[in-house]
From TrEMBL:
Source species, domain of life: Bacteria
Its EC number(s): 1.3.1.76
Domain Siroheme synthase central: 119-145
Protein's name according to its UniProt entry: precorrin-2 dehydrogenase
């Protein structure tokens, strides 16, 4: 295992992005979706990032990256067109033991971005440890085709059932349900679940 798989909670956490072009914009879009507070160090911002800065959705810290930008952030992404700058960012981040990703340069990353299927709150990540990104993308596309678009809704329904006490570990081992359902059975069951107007399962669908 070359990389430890982990999902990070970035909500409300400061993240530094070095670079203001299209590559940086793609990463910033993902960071904002995760609720991060994004600061950008770049000589110029493209139109998309300029609009985000004007709307106060990102903070344009400075036109030149400075070492002190790293001190108070949770993680760093270097996405500029200047490879020497990107590597400087990497070495400074490493010296401060901050997670850092230099986009497109696996040798200068302490973390990498997987290929992701997002069915919020369900997320599935596929990675080749950076060695075969095309293969990872193909695997993601194949998996994505197998999963229903409503998977996120199913997860939310399941969560409400669990919180209401309709689903618990004891249900799985009870005499009425001696074996766990397969993934396909669980998805099919959630798809066909009958819900009351309140969003809770009807009595006929309670487990146990």
């Amino acid at each position: 295992m070359n990389y430890f798989p982990i999902f990070a909670n970035l909500s409300g956490r400061p993240v530094l992005v070095v670079g203001g072009g299209a590559v940086a914009a793609r990463k910033i879009s993902l960071l904002l979706k995760a609720g991060a507070e994004v600061g950008v160090a770049a000589k110029h911002l493209n139109a998309e990032l300029s609009a985000l800065a004007a709307e106060n959705k990102i903070l344009w810290l400075a036109k030149e990256f400075r070492a002190e930008h790293i001190r108070t952030v949770f993680l760093i992404i270097a996405a500029s067109s200047d490879q020497a700058l990107n590597r400087r960012v990497f070495h400074l981040a490493e010296s401060c033991q901050k997670p850092v990703n230099v986009v497109g340069d696996r040798d200068h990353c302490s973390f990498i971005f997987p290929s992701v299927i997002d069915r919020d709150p369900v997320q599935i990540a596929v990675s080749s440890s950076g060695s075969a990104p095309v293969l990872a993308r193909l695997l993601r596309e194949r998996l994505e085709a197998l999963l229903p678009p409503s998977l996120g809704d199913m997860a939310e329904i399941s969560g409400r059932w669990r919180d209401a006490g309709f689903i618990s570990p004891s249900n799985w081992s009870s005499a009425k349900m001696p074996t766990r359902p397969t993934v396909s059975e669980a998805i099919r069951g959630a798809s066909n679940a009958v819900r009351s107007p309140s969003g809770k399962p009807s009595a006929s669908n309670r487990t146990g």
